[in-house]
UniProtKB/TrEMBL annotation:
Domain (Purple acid phosphatase N-terminal): residue spans on this chain: 60-151
Species this protein is from: Acacia crassicarpa (northern wattle)
Name this polypeptide is given: Purple acid phosphatase
Calcineurin-like phosphoesterase domain sequence ranges: 162-360
Transmembrane segments: none
Gene3D superfamilies the record matches: 3.60.21.10, Purple acid phosphatase-like, N-terminal
Signal peptide: none
InterPro entries for the chain: Calcineurin-like_PHP, Metallo-depent_PP-like, MPP_PAP, PAPs-like, PAPs_C, PAPs_N, Purple_acid_Pase-like_N
GO molecular function: acid phosphatase activity; transition metal ion binding
Length: 482
């Protein structure tokens, strides 16, 4: 590469600038010194209390709900009957109302190697009132079971709402502790944002799908009462040509339905919802992501569509992190980063939650989007338009913790700790949200890490350090484009 004198000068000035920036930016974050008192536990045995089949002939089991439309006025109720199909109808009524309504669903079954599923029912209830408690009953005609949920308030910029963050949960004793902590948390999560890897059935010989059923029964105690917003992880792929199983995501998509058509997606693996003041985009790290692919085309429209005046909080969920400093799965998110990081920055995504790495990590606001093959500008730098990346793959599955970390801790990593736990995102209003992380070895109310998030859309460039950082970024971009 031949540089002109002007080019060389600019290059030197920039290199100097980079050096100064580096010298001023903090010392590469915190690697927690917390010492765990044990390693990790195994899956709970099949006869555990949490896996118990509910009593009664053909009793509905594995009941779970998720959002059923784009706005939060719909709910998808799913459950399984084992003995015979029975009814796919849900009877529901608002609290303090005598009027019982009903919605009709359908059921599916599937085979996986030598496993045959029960009757998997899905029923979408639509046009509910916002901000209302509903009771619902499934198992009509045989053994019925009753549950309840509360719809979110209407979508709007200052609607407070609390999300739980759980990932890579699995079904060990640790998983049970994570779920218990989430249930008992004084922060009172109203909806779970689940970042993928559910049952880990595929860790068993023949992907023993019995472990999908146990997971469904285990999580019912939370998932029947509040929506879980599902993201597909690598353990949902269940691709096993050696078993004759060549259709990816077969058990997952049969069991966990999501309202993907409501956001004009053509696949349940990527979709979006609005809920209160949040716009949540779910991506699939294990589907085609390249230009012109269905996911790309959908995302291209989707990001442009978000109205931050209506839903200020733009949140992305995907399984594989793009900024993780653990050794496990290091740089696996790189293809997604190369394709989509520039949109995260352009559209000022507030936070990207991922799982996959079985540990906790929170990043600085950084980006690395100036590279264009010839300019050599592939440096991760502070960027106030970039999201914070949070890895929350610490639900407690059978594979154990990702304890090995890359050293030294990179500058983009603000806090990291290999312990099991869960997160809470507490949105206060259009400008402020509070994120906290609970580790299982503390009490349910203890926050081992926390941070105030200033909304990226409403954030004003007030602090000088950030401003100079922004100017620097502009300079790099100009250079990249020159
Ligand atoms: C964790 O497992 C390793 C290897 O089995 C063992 O050496 C170590 O003592 C264990 N640590 C704790 C805290 O139990
Ligand atoms: C499926 O096949 C495996 C291996 O042959 C066997 O251990 C298991 O019991 C079978 N399960 C069913 C439901 O037939
Ligand atoms: C799971 O946790 C629940 C709630 O804390 C408890 O009642 C149950 O006994 C636990 N089950 C197992 C197998 O640890
Ligand atoms: C938004 O919430 C934060 C944190 O609770 C608070 O300090 C701030 O005053 C609120 N802003 C408005 C406009 O209410
Ligand atoms: Fe994973």
């Amino acid at each position: 590469m031949e540089l002109t004198w002007k080019g060389k000068l600019e290059w030197l000035v920039m290199a100097g600038f980079l050096y100064i920036i580096n010298a001023h930016v903090s010392e590469g974050g915190i690697t927690s010194s917390f010492l765990r008192s044990y390693n990790y536990s195994l899956d709970m045995p099949l006869d555990s209390d949490v896996f118990r089949v509910p009593p009664g002939y053909n009793a509905p089991q594995q009941v779970h709900i998720t959002q059923g439309d784009h706005l939060g006025k719909g709910v998808i109720v799913s459950w399984i009957t084992q003995d015979e199909p029975g009814s796919s109808t849900v009877v529901y009524w608002a609290q303090d109302s005598q009027l019982k309504l009903q919605a009709d669903g359908f059921f599916v079954t599937y085979n996986y190697f030598n496993y045959t599923s029960g009757y998997i029912h899905h029923c979408t209830i639509e046009n509910l009132e916002f901000d209302t408690q509903y009771f619902y009953e499934v198992g009509i005609g045989f053994t019925t079971r009753e549950f309840w949920f509360k719809t979110p308030p209407p979508v709007g910029p200052d609607v407070p709402y609390t999300f739980g963050l759980i990932g890579d949960l699995g079904q060990t004793y640790d998983s049970n502790t994570t779920l218990t902590h989430y249930e008992k948390s004084p922060a009172k999560g109203e909806t779970v944002l689940y970042v993928g890897d559910l049952s880990y059935a595929d860790d068993y010989p023949f992907h023993d799908n019995i472990r999908w059923d146990t997971w469904g029964r285990f999580t019912e105690r939370v998932a029947a009462y509040q929506p879980w917003i599902w993201t597909a992880g690598n353990h949902e792929i269940d691709f096993a040509p050696e078993l004759g199983e060549t259709r990816p995501f077969k058990p997952y998509t049969a069991r966990y339905h999501v309202p993907f058509q409501a956001s004009h997606s053509t696949s349940p693996l990527w979709y979006s919802i609005k809920r209160a003041s949040a716009y949540i985009i779910v991506m699939s790290a294990y589907s085609a992501i390249g230009k012109y692919t269905p996911q790309y085309k959908w995302l291209e429209n989707e990001f442009a569509k978000v109205n931050r005046k209506e839903t200020p909080w733009l949140i992305v969920l995907m399984h594989s992190p793009i900024y993780s400093s653990y050794v496990a799965h290091y740089m696996e998110g790189e293809t997604v980063r190369v394709m989509y990081e520039r949109w995260f920055v352009k559209y000022k995504v507030d936070v990207v939650f991922a799982g996959h790495v079985h540990a906790y990590e929170r990043s600085e606001r950084v980006s690395n989007i100036a590279y264009n093959i010839v300019n050599g500008l592939c440096k991760t730098m502070n960027d106030q338009s970039a999201p914070i990346y949070i890895t929350i793959g610490d639900g407690g599955n059978i594979e154990g913790l990702a304890t090995a970390m890359t050293e030294p801790q990179p500058k983009y990593s603000a806090f990291r700790e290999a312990s099991f736990g869960h997160g809470i995102l507490d949105i206060k209003n259009r400008s402020h949200a509070y994120f906290s992380w609970n580790r299982n070895q503390d009490g349910c109310a203890v926050e081992a890490d926390s941070i105030w998030l200033n909304n990226r859309y409403y954030w004003t460039h007030s602090d000088e350090a950030s401003l100079s950082e922004l100017r620097h970024h502009e300079k790099v971009k100009q250079l990249a484009e020159a």
